[in-house]
Amino acid sequence: MSRFEDLRKQMIEYQMAARGLSDQAVLGAINAVPREAFVPTELVEFSYNDSPLPIAASQTISQPYIVALMTAALELKPEDRVLEIGTGSGYAAAVLAEISEQVFTVERHKILVDSARQILEDLGYSNIEVRHGDGTLGWPQRAPFDAIVVAAGGPKVPDTLKQQLAIGGRLLIPVGEDLRRQKLIRVRRVSEREYLEEDLGSVRFVPLIGAAGWADESASAPASEQISMTLPELIYESSEHFASIDHLKLDRLLERIGDSRLVLLGEASHGSAEFYEMRAKITQALIEKKGFVGVAVEADWPDASHIDRYIRGIASNPLLESKPFSRFPTWMWANHCVLAFTRWLKAHNEQISSPERRVGFYGLDLYSLDSSIEAVLGYLETVDPETAQVARERYGCLTPWTHDPALYGKIVMTQQYRACEDDVVAVLLDLLKKRLQYAQGDGDSFFDAQQNAHLIKNAERYYRTMYYAENNSWNQRDRHMFETLQSVLAYRGTQSKIVIWEHNSHIGDARATEMSARGEYNIGQLVRQKYGEQAYHIGFGTDHGTVAAASEWGGPMEIKQVQPSHIDSYERIFHDVHSDNFLLPLRTPMQEITRTRLLDERLERAIGVLYRPESELLSHYFYASLPRQFDEYIWFDETRAVKPLTTPSTRGTLDTFPFGL
Predict the structure, then answer these.
(1) What is the C-alpha separation between 411 and 416, in angstroms, rounded?
(2) What is the pLDDT of residue 117?
(3) How far apart are CA 556 and CA 566, in angstroms?
(4) Contact, 172 vs 148, CB < 8 A?
(5) 258 backbone dihedrals φ, ψ, rounded to 5°
(6) Is 10 exposed, middle or buried (0-12, 13-18, 19+ CB in 10 A)?
(7) DSSP labels for 129-164?
(8) CA proximity to 131, closest of 140, 61, 264, 147
(9) What's the confidence (pLDDT) of residue 145?
């Protein structure tokens, strides 16, 4: 028996059974849950003490006896569906889940939501669903509930929760107009309109904050007023308005971003100028005021490396050269917005004397097979000609297909040509084996070659699988982008901060969209799972205007009219707000009611490098819960198309995702 198991048995014997708690189902559940897993690391030795313990967001994990007492008072049965208000650490939810069939738990502090969800998943609790929201409003979409337990004290029993009880259901809540004098109340629903209340004794809990609880002092308007507002009115009250990007002050946004190590900046299309200009403005502020050292974008590594070398004073202006960004869609990065931002980056870096502190520009994508192969071979020819010859032979299997790598996927699929996986992996392994030797010569060049070799390995797998597992090829692409981001972070240092520029569909959490139901994930989900509150995800949206896009993959760029948003979409709600441009925070408590009202899944628009207005609903809308995707949302009611630079265009890879992203 482990030390914690022994402490758990002692806790049950001396803190619970000795006080008269004899419900064997509850005691068994308490014995089954490792309380130490829910306690902060620095307090783990006190896990089984007879007292509450502090956790994040100025909250507590309740005294073990109180958790057991309240669980027993719910009179749970194995088939019950339970709603918990106030997830906290997740410990009580785990205890409830040991007895009942399904537990739904709501928490207003996002940092606790993310932490509890991860702990519960790690412990294998598949019958618990965690939601970020206003617990006083309950969870109407999952009602009715056989039992509801509230882990915070309110001024009265919320009618919203009573109405979500099943007939015969039990509601347990601390109640008191004075937070120092609370009673634990059990409410039974006898019929459609009849409830019975019982006083179970004195308790003391943290205040129940929300629309039907205690008012949040930081709220922009009284809860009663906010409840009566329309959703567009709520959004107006909860957002920061600005006339133009030039006149926008970012101080409050930077406060909300705080000490985040990663800031993910999205876009609702690949061809709208306002999205690029706003991302540039935010990124400049993050570099100047918060020490960010890199920009990682949805572009191929070799193309982005031209910008990287240019802004660090190693090469001429890459956007005026013919080679980078010559593959479709050229306008996505070879445009005047990016050119202006590139020049700012160069000017900024020229003021920094130390090369290792200069801001870098990195490509995360994997479409550039031919450019990456050339980069790896060119590097090896310089530092190790013998290895270069071996690599050239190994890459030979891919050489016929580099200008049309999608064709390679077709050939492998029909087994007319063998896969090159072993050969391309071997080149990467050779590079890694000689890491120290090569890095001594030129660390930047070696890192560049290593990332290109990694890209080739992942691209080979991507094109090989795209024809028989579409969601798998999407996953492989975003996994590659996440791995590349990890490599950049490691290369720039353990405390380095990076800005990511990608489409909303990549940087928003995929678990909040219909992508998840298809088995797809994205870089936004992977970042949120690994970094939690240390990453800040910002989505962008628009209603109408013009956009630079093509009608088919590899086709010419056109300036197209963006159709007014669909009536059932998030975009229509934002269009109805009496402000053309605004920032809507979604993580902070003062926006809780607005966020809750936005949580229901709605249509959301995504325009990539392709835009097909004639089939817009089918081609460009998907269902999502926007507040779960993003921590903030930036709205431009009308947008204009980006202005491309003059660069040659070549036909590229096939459209591998419905939106052409």
Answers:
(1) 5
(2) 92
(3) 27
(4) yes
(5) 60, -130
(6) exposed
(7) EEEES-GGG--GGG--EEEEEESSBBSS--HHHHTT
(8) 140
(9) 97
Residue whose pair of structure tokens reads 């869609």 in the numeric block: 329
Cβ burial 514-524 (10 Å sphere, 16+ → b, else e): ebeeeebbbbb
State CA 431 to chain mean position distance: 33
Fold topology of 3-203: Rossmann fold (3.40.50)
Both structure tokens of 125: 């609790």
> Between helices 369-383 and 385-394, what is the axis angle to 10°?
150
In this structure, are strands 195-203 and 558-562 parallel, antiparallel, or unpaired?
unpaired
Provide DSSP, 183-244.
EEEEEEE-SSS-EEEEEEEEE---B-BSTTSBPPTT-SS-HHHHHHS-HHHHHHHHSEE-S-
Residue type, 560: K
Task: Provide the b/e sequence for 82-110 (b: ≥16 CB within 10 Å).
Answer: bbbbbbbbbbbbbbbbbbbebbbbbbbbb
d(CA 106, CA 286): 33
- Which stretches of 312-359 are DSSP H helices? 336-350
For 187, phi then psi, to 5°, come to -110, 130
Query: At 388, is the pLDDT very low, low, confident or very high (cuts 50, 70, 90)?
Result: low
Q: How long a stretch of residues is the chain? A: 661
Give the sign of the dihedral formed by CA 541, CA 543, CA 549, CA 551.
positive
Count of CB atoms within 10 A of residue 71's CB? 27
Residue 431 reports pLDDT greater than 80: no
Per-residue pLDDT, averaged over 157-163, amounts to 93
Q: Are strands 558-562 and 535-549 parallel, antiparallel or unpaired?
A: antiparallel
Name the E strands within 462-528: 498-501
Where do the structural domains in the chain lie, given as residue ranges? 3-203, 366-471
| pLDDT at residue 411, as a whole number | 42
pLDDT given for residue 243 in this prediction: 86
pLDDT at position 413 is 43
58 sits in the region (left: phi over 0; alpha: psi -120 to 50; else beta) called: left
Rounded to an integer, what distance in angstroms lies between the CA atom of residue 622 and that of residue 24?
47
DSSP 651: -
Please, which residues bridge with residue 562 across strands?
A: 545
Tokens 């910008």 sit on residue: 307
pLDDT of residue 320: 41
336 in Cβ contact with 643 (< 8 Å)? yes
Which residue, chain included where needed, has tokens 């086709």? 555
> pLDDT tens digits for 481-519?
898 899 889 889 888 999 999 999 999 999 999 888 778
Catalytic residue among 2, 47, 51, 62: 62
Write out pLDDT tens, residues 222-254. Answer: 444 455 578 998 898 888 988 889 888 899 999
62 is catalytic: yes
**How far apart are the C-alpha atoms of 507 and 609, rounded to whole Å?**
17
For 625-653, the pLDDT digits (tens) are 999 999 999 999 999 999 998 744 444 44
pLDDT band at 143 (very low <50, low <70, confident <90, very high): very high
The first and second tokens of residue 145, run together, are 């509930």
Q: Which two tokens stand for residue 9?
A: 């048995």
By CB atoms closer than 10 A (0-12, 13-18, 19+), residue 193 is exposed
User: pLDDT tens for residues 441-483?
Assistant: 555 665 665 566 555 555 445 544 444 444 455 777 788 789 8
Residue predicted with more confidence, 111 or 580: 580
Closest CA to 234 of 622, 578, 602: 578
From the list 374, 309, 310, the residue with the least C-alpha distance to 343 is 310
Rounded distance between C-alpha atoms, residue 580 and residue 283, angstroms: 22
